[in-house]
């Protein structure tokens, strides 16, 4: 074992940071043996050191001054777990510039500024490891960076947000309402500090951007990604989806198509026969399709204290090995080109549509005309018995280009018999 003690500083000790401390208490000896390295967590930055924590630590380990960690030359590794863009970005940049290795689980930051931070790491012959930023405890960054590098990745399809998957599962399986399910996800530590990032699909989009950067070799402006959250998913849609053999999931899809790259996150009807349909609660699953390997699937706990701590400490172990072996382990990802994405309305999908209509003669004939005019072919139509002269109609289309479907939808909504605000979701193709 290396004699010199390697000191580690941590920024933030909330859900994930507490998991890191707990896992260190449990498995430090094993990590020391496996890395043949002596190390110690010596300082932790928090906002409020007096806040009760569920793990006992000497009060002296806490600081509210980031420079006690970033400017301490005896600290070689920094674990960033405060989240958000600033001040995390500034702290990480300064840490790399002063020759430290950096570990982070911050997807917001890696999606928006990963290229810049990796370049700072490159310039300083250091590295920034970010396995915890996607899929919680699931190994996915290393497989994309190392194991699948010989493949041409065609497609990534995944459930990559634990909070929304937890909410949709509880709504579907326990009839829980949205607010109660979200509250449980927050109590369990799955949700972001600002849960709108989960609910509105941004968290999943950041993870998709990070994976796509590694898989397709491009960096992607988050503003270009089509993002739709789960706010419009109702119990009625969940029940209808079940009736026709589907489950509604928030799915992230990255595809290398003949015309370019397409990235999108939206609620999606997934067939009960598809393996993603049985991914429940905070679990995540990611399919990667390569030209040589075919389809590979990564599955596990996508959020939570200990699962994410497992990924964070695996990254720390890699940094320890670099220091111990005196290997100058700079960034191995190549610099990426900026991608221009194909807009969603040029992509093809099958659509689910649910709306209310007056129950009177001629409504179906008018619908058939509108869809026919836009070459939208229907795969399935359901109409339940009317209530107060109002019929609920659910239909599923065959594959169609989104802009054609939207034109048809506009015309449908403008029919006098059709009520406004239909539910519209895409099916997983
Ligand atoms: P929490 O909100 O639970 O914890 C944040 C911690 O950072 C707290 O200890 C807080 O201090 C500290 N902190 C926040 N801002 C500052 C600041 N400006 N200066 C000093 N300290 C600060 O977050 P999580 O642990 O849930 O998440 C951390 C990171 O990990 C995020 O990037 C998140 O996206 C990511 N992540 C989270 C997962 C999860 O399941 N929760 C899974 C995968 C990744 P104090 O304790 O005093 O309030
Ligand atoms: N809020 C995130 C989620 C945490 O629910 O998936 C894991 O990245």
Summarize the structure.
By secondary structure, this protein is of the alpha/beta class.
Account of the 3D structure:
The chain is an alpha/beta fold and 429 residues long. The chain has three domains: 5-136 and 305-338, Rossmann fold, CATH 3.40.50; 141-301, Dihydrodipicolinate Reductase, domain 2, CATH 3.30.360; 344-427, ACT domain (Alpha-Beta Plaits, 2-Layer Sandwich). The protein contains 13 helices and 20 strands. The protein has helices at residues 15-35, 67-70, 88-97, 107-123, 141-147, 162-174, 178-187, 196-199, 202-216, 235-243, 305-324, 363-373, 402-414; strands spanning 6-11, 39-45, 62-63, 75-80, 101-104, 128-129, 153-159, 218-219, 226-227, 246-257, 260-271, 283-290, 294-301, 337-338, 348-349, 351-358, 378-383, 390-397, 400-401, 423-427. The strands form four sheets. Strands 7, 9, 10, 11, 12, 13, 16, 17, 18 and 20 form a ten-stranded mixed β-sheet that branches. A hairpin with a 6-residue loop joins strand 17 (378-383) and strand 18 (390-397). The radius of gyration is 24 Å and the shape is elongated. Bound molecules: NADPH dihydro-nicotinamide-adenine-dinucleotide phosphate and L-homoserine. The site of L-homoserine has 11 residues, from helix 6.
């Amino acid at each position: 074992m290396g004699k010199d003690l390697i000191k580690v500083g941590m920024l933030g000790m909330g859900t994930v940071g507490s998991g890191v401390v707990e896992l260190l208490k449990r498995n430090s000896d094993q990590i020391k043996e496996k890395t043949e390295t002596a190390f110690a967590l010596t300082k932790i930055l928090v906002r409020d050191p007096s806040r009760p924590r569920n793990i006992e630590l000497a009060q002296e380990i806490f600081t509210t001054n980031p420079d006690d960690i970033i400017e301490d030359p005896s600290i070689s590794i920094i674990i960033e777990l405060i989240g958000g863009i600033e001040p995390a970005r500034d702290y990480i940049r300064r840490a790399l510039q002063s020759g430290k290795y950096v570990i982070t689980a911050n997807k917001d930051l890696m999606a928006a500024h990963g290229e810049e931070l990796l370049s700072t790491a490159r310039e300083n012959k250091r590295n920034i490891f970010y396995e915890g930023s996607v899929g919680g405890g699931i190994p996915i960054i290393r497989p994309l960076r190392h194991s699948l590098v010989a493949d041409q990745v065609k497609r990534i399809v995944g459930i990559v947000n634990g909070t929304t998957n937890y909410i949709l599962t509880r709504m579907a399986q326990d009839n829980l309402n949205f607010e109660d399910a979200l509250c449980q996800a927050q109590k369990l530590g799955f949700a972001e500090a600002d849960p709108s990032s989960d609910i509105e699909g941004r968290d999943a989009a950041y993870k998709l951007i990070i994976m796509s950067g590694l898989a397709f070799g491009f960096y992607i402006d988050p503003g270009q990604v089509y993002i739709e959250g789960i706010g419009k998913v109702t119990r009625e849609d969940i029940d209808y989806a079940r009736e026709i053999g589907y489950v509604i999931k928030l799915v992230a899809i990255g595809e290398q198509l003949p015309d370019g790259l397409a990235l999108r996150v939206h609620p999606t009807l997934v067939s009960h026969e598809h393996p993603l349909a049985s991914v429940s609660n905070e679990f995540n699953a990611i399919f990667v399709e390569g030209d040589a390997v075919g389809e590979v699937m990564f599955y596990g706990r996508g959020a939570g204290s200990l699962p994410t701590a497992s990924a964070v400490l695996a990254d720390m172990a890699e940094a320890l090995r670099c220091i111990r072996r005196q290997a100058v382990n700079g960034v191995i990802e190549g610099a990426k080109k900026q991608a221009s994405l194909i807009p969603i309305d040029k992509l093809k999908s099958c659509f689910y549509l649910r709306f209310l209509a007056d129950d009177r003669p001629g409504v179906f004939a008018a619908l058939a005309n509108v869809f026919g005019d836009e070459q939208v072919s229907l795969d399935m139509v359901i109409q339940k018995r009317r209530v107060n002269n109002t019929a609920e109609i659910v239909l599923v289309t065959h594959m169609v280009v989104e802009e054609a479907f939207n034109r048809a939808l506009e015309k449908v909504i403008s029919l006098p018999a059709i009520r406004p605000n239909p539910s519209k979701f895409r099916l997983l193709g």
